[in-house]
């Protein structure tokens, strides 16, 4: 049986109309393809914005990595490939190397503390600071402080004692002991006194160590050499002087004069004069006793005369 051409044409038109209606309702049968931009190596906020602007959804997976936190490490689909518009791009992002607690290193030496911090996964920088309590070369503190949770690979600053703060030693030679001691103490230094025989006024500072203008650690000691009366004095010989003059001369010399008694003299010019002294000269300890003997005139006995016959 032969088909009528008109019937065939009508059937084809109906099929085409139906397909057109389906296309209008459902849209194209194949989704639109969009090129996936390369966002590996960028920060998550930047890469995510790029992909979302292209119409993609973004799924993020965070992993421990030595790379910087939030840096995009991988993406799927691969960069520069094409994917369905509106599909999901998976991003693998660095969560950093993980965290650890800063260990306590107070009181350790610089090298010991550095090894301990590096073993805990941190980088180390060193800074020096003065300390009146922590010996030079030992750790005073860290920044961040011990016990702080921070990313591994972060930098911890190690503060190491440079010893007490340095101060300038004042010039005090020629001052009195009290004045000099107060001035030295005012700058944070201690004072040690050494006495030395001198003809200068007792208590006068003769020398100092360290010298004026030098740098010394706060709390260190400055030694002051201070004048004192000589402990050995010269014994004056007072033989021939009057008793009062001799006593004065011996006392002025720093000695203790003692009148040991009198001695008869036949020469009236020696009456009341020192005729003997012990010791009579040389050196003696300040305050030593010197004994003098004073002459006492005794007229010679008279011889009776015999009359001439």
What's the arrangement of secondary structure elements?
Layout: H1 5-26, E1 33-35, H2 44-53, E2 57-63, E3 72-76, E4 82-84, E5 88-94, E6 99-101, H3 110-119, E7 123-129, E8 139-143, E9 149-151, E10 155-161, E11 166-168, H4 177-186, E12 190-197, E13 205-209, E14 215-217, E15 221-228, E16 232-234, H5 243-252, E17 256-265, E18 274-278, E19 283-285, E20 289-297
Parallel strand pairs: 2-5, 7-10, 12-15, 17-20
Antiparallel strand pairs: 1-4, 3-5, 6-9, 8-10, 11-14, 13-15, 16-19, 18-20
Give a short overview.
With 309 residues, the protein is of the alpha/beta class. It is 20% helix and 35% strand. It has 4 domains: 29-94, Trypsin Inhibitor V, Chain A (2-Layer Sandwich), CATH 3.30.10.20; 99-161, Trypsin Inhibitor V, Chain A (2-Layer Sandwich); 166-228, Trypsin Inhibitor V, Chain A, CATH 3.30.10; 232-297, Trypsin Inhibitor V, Chain A (2-Layer Sandwich), CATH 3.30.10.
Describe the protein in words:
The relative contact order is 0.08. The chain is 20% helix and 35% strand. With 309 residues, it is of the alpha/beta class. The chain contains 5 helices and 20 strands.
Q: Taking strands numbered 1, 2, ... along the chain, how are they ordered across the largest sheet?
A: 2-5-3
Shape: rod-shaped
As a percent range, the share of helical residues equals 10-25%
Beginning-to-end CA distance, first to last residue = 232 Å
Which CATH class of the largest domain?
Alpha Beta
Integer-rounded radius of gyration: 55 Å
What count of structural domains?
A: 4
Task: Please count the helical segments.
Answer: 5
Largest sheet: 3 strands, mixed
* CATH fold group of the largest domain: Trypsin Inhibitor V, Chain A
Low-confidence region ranges: none
Instruction: Encode the helix/strand succession as letters.
Output: HEHEEEEEHEEEEEHEEEEEHEEEE
Structural class: alpha/beta
């Amino acid at each position: 049986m032969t088909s009528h051409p008109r019937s065939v044409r009508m059937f084809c038109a109906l099929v085409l109309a139906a397909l057109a209606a389906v296309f209008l309702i459902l849209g194209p049968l194949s989704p639109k393809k969009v090129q996936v931009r390369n966002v590996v190596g960028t920060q998550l906020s930047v890469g995510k914005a790029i992909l979302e602007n292209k119409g993609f959804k973004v799924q993020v997976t965070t992993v421990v990595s030595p790379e910087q936190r939030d840096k995009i490490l991988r993406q799927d689909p691969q960069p520069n490939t094409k994917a369905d518009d509106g599909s999901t791009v998976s991003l693998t992002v660095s969560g950093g190397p993980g965290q650890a607690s800063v260990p306590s290193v107070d009181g350790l030496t610089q090298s010991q503390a550095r090894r301990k911090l590096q073993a805990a996964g941190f980088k180390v920088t060193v800074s020096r600071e003065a300390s009146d309590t922590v010996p030079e070369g030992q750790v005073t503190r860290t920044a961040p402080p011990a016990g702080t949770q921070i990313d591994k690979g972060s930098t911890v600053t190690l503060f190491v004692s440079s010893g007490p703060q340095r101060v300038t030693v004042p010039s005090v030679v020629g001052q009195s002991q009290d004045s000099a001691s107060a001035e030295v103490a005012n700058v944070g230094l201690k004072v040690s006194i050494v006495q030395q025989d001198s003809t200068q006024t007792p208590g006068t500072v003769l020398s100092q160590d360290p010298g004026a203008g030098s740098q010394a650690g706060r709390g260190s000691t400055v030694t002051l050499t201070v004048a004192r009366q000589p402990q050995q004095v010269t014994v004056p010989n007072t033989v021939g002087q009057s008793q009062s003059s001799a006593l004065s001369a011996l006392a002025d010399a720093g000695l203790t004069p003692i009148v040991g008694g009198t001695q008869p003299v036949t020469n009236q010019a020696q009456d009341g004069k020192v005729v003997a002294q012990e010791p009579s000269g040389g050196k003696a300890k300040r305050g030593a006793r010197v004994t003098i003997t004073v002459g006492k005139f005794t007229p010679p006995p008279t011889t009776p005369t015999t009359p001439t016959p």
